Amino acid sequence: MNLSWANQFAKTALKTAQQKIDSVLDIRPDEEEAAGSVSDVIPEDLLVNPAVPLGATEEVNVTALPVPSSVNGEGWSNAWNSVSADQELVVDSEPNPIRDECPQASASLFDHSPSSNSSDGIEPGQSPQKVSDYEENKRAETADVDKSVYVDVDLSVPSPEETQFASSSETIQEENVLPPLPDIVRRNSHQDDSITVASSDIEVIRNVDAWSIASSKPATDNMPSHVLTSKHDTTESFRAQLLHAEQRRNELKAANDTLQSNNVQLQQRIILLNQQHSSLKKELEGKKTELEDLLAEGKRLSDHSGKQAREIRRLKSELAELEKVKAERKRLKEEKSRAEETIDLQKEEIASLKGMIKQLESSAEQLLKEQSMRAASTEVAQKHALEQNKLVAELERELSEARKQIDELSDCNKKLTREAELMQSVSWSERLAGERANETVATINTELLEARAHIERLRSQLQCTESRLEVVLNERNSVAESISQSNIPLLEEINNLKQLLHREQGANEESDIKTRALKRELDVVREQLDKLKEINESMVMHHHQELTVVNQKVQHLERELVLVHEAKDSAMTEHKAARAVDAVALENLREENAVLANDLSSLRNSLKVLKDDNDALKASLEDARAHQVVPQPVEKSCKIQAQKEATHPGSNSFDEYAMSTSQVAPFSLAPPQSATAVLHDMSLKRISFLEQEALRCSQLEDQVRQLKKELKVLNQQYNGLLVVDGERLERIEELENDVIDLRQLLKEQLLAFAEARMTENKETS
């Protein structure tokens, strides 16, 4: 029996299975670009529900696509023998140099490894039963390997024309059916291909070594040599393919392990993401609560803004008072410096006046001595008596002027004493004392200027008198004897002048007392100025503290203003939306009101018509009773009533028209009785219909009233919203104005503070 076709078919089946496995595990250059996108696109259900690990089954199931029988099922049976006899379709994915170079090397090689003592092949001289058992064992092993690999092979042989198309289409179908491998397997496949090629070659050599002829005895008893060689070739190829498949299975198992580890990592990552999601939800809830708290705080701050505005106004008034105090302080300093200068000048003038008075006294004594000595020389001076009389008259005039000036000075001194007494008796406040001190200092300055002018006049007069006295002395020395008798009135005048000098000395002493009192007042004013300085410094410190507080409040108010602006924007958007909704609702209500008004007008018109109909029916009933109407007029009245009902099918009424049955009295005659019964039934039906319409109209009126009430409520709410919006806008404008005023105040205070510092530095320098 020739089994070459079976061996050839098994070879082709194993080759195609190996080609399919290689095509699954192989990476083409054009597929490397798509590997990143495929590896990144991992479905979410695999992340949540991990895939079943391949290590549990430790099997690789590669199914070949079924070929439809309608396409190429007719030529398979005819092409079977031709393929087995003529063509040898050998598809090998990996080159094998031992098999390719020496195809019949198995006949010359040993059946088993030289190091092994036994052989796995058929030993020569064995019985046919052992040979058949050996073949059955080999077939069972190949079947087990086939089962473990799960290679589904279609045993039908294609036609020669379809072999090429099948070989090309299988790869396309496998690419379409088989899912894309993960990125880890694709990355490791380049490295694994080189290992598998080398390992497959080594395994082939080992298998050939294991099936070598040297360790086995040729079974020439029952089998021919060409059958054994073909069988050895097929078993070797089977072994090589199975080893290669086993190695690929191990590689796939390793890739599966990596995928499992990646799956565990992804599950951990999913858990972390879920935890982050829950934490983010908690944070969002916290943020929402914070936003609500901030909104509540914004409302509270808006309520508190009125109090802050009042406090700002109070601070403004205090700042104005501080500025006034600073201005008064500057003015008092200037007045103090002026008063000190005037006091120094007065002291100098008083000292000069005292010296002049002493000089005048000494000169007067000398004059007395000279007059006593020149009493004898008065005779000579008689000639010059007229001239001396003239001079005496001039001197008398000057003395009268001096007396007048002295009187004026005494009056001024009296005024000063009165003012000093008033200043000592009355307790002045700080501001009034400063103003009065300013006035007194101004008056003192004017008086001092007048006194200076008067002193200058006196000096000029004294110089004139000295010159004249010198002339007079010279003349009197010559005529001392002649004027001894005429000197008696002059002596009296001199005594008078002495008295006047004593008076002037008393007045000067009084002026000294006044100046001392003024000095005391100046000391008091200085003490008050020192106190005011201390108060000013304390107020400046307090002002600085208030400035810091105000700055903090301004910053806080600016933040509140920003929040208020945000709340304003949100409120404006909400208000606009509410306005739009209210406008739409108002339009709808107006339309409904118009429709209801039209319905009411139509119902009222129909009510009038029904009243007219009812009156006509009553009149017809009365006529029928009075005249005992025949059936024909009854039919006419029925027709008229039916026409009226047809013309007014939807008439309504608001009042109840209940007709009593006692009004319709039964007639004795049969025809009128039937006519009245018909009219009575029709009137009853009409009345019931009118009652129903009246009820419906009353219900519609109630609905209209309710709608009007709702419309009023909506209008009130709308007006309230408008008022609230206006108040909010006014409040925001007030806050903005307050912030602008605070900024201006801060600028002015800083400028004033800088100027005060500059002035203090200048004073200290």
Automatic annotation (TrEMBL):
Entry keyword set: Coiled coil
Extent of Polar residues compositional bias: 113-130
GO terms for cellular component: endoplasmic reticulum; Golgi apparatus
Superkingdom: Eukaryota
Coiled coil: 242-475, 586-627, 690-752
Keyword Coiled coil among UniProt keywords: yes
Region listing for Disordered, in residue ranges: 94-145
Xref: InterPro entries: Growth_transcription_reg, TMF_TATA-bd
Domain TATA element modulatory factor 1 TATA binding: 693-750
UniProt cross-references to Pfam families, sorted A to Z: TMF_TATA_bd
Biased composition (Basic and acidic residues): 132-145
PANTHER family linked to this entry: TATA ELEMENT MODULATORY FACTOR, TATA ELEMENT MODULATORY FACTOR TMF1
Name by which UniProt lists this protein: Myosin heavy chain
Species: Trichostrongylus colubriformis (Black scour worm)
Record lineage: Eukaryota, Metazoa, Ecdysozoa, Nematoda, Chromadorea
